[in-house]
From TrEMBL:
Name listed for the protein in its UniProt record: CSF2R factor
Stored Pfam families: IL6Ra-bind
Source species: Callaeas wilsoni (North Island kokako)
UniProt cross-references to Gene3D superfamilies, sorted A to Z: Immunoglobulins
Key words, A-Z: Glycoprotein, Membrane, Receptor, Signal, Transmembrane, Transmembrane helix
Cellular component terms per the entry's GO annotation: external side of plasma membrane
Gene: Csf2ra_2
Amino acid sequence: PVFAGMNGSAIENFSCVIYNIFLMNCTWQAGRDAPADTQYFLYWQKSREDNEMECELYIKDENCRNMGCIFQNVTIGTEKAYFLVNGSSKDSLIQFYDEYIDLYKIEKLMPPSNITVNCDEIKNDCIIQWQRPQISHSNKDKCFKYEINVKYK
């Protein structure tokens, strides 16, 4: 059966974020009814053409249970990525959790760089320039909007 395993044993509150351009951090909580010895394992597949990969760097809780993962060298493709977290226990079958995620939607952008401000007191104006942050999924500027908050001293 697709949902074989003890009810309430699958992970909860799964989330991932991509940061610093190529790092991805995924976290979750143990199922509320999972046995104490349950260990979880995360697999992901960037696209249908790519191989499924298991986490290489798990984040563990105080009981050495896998509660998250850090992936390095992540690139964002056009397809939704597939995530699967399954579990094992000596006492019972553990339900799996899976989800498809658009990776570009979970990327936390870096702030703009090379910010310069040049003010002309005679003209009473300022020119503020910056470079957009580096991102992993596109070279286009069209999806960036900036807000400038000017505070006078």
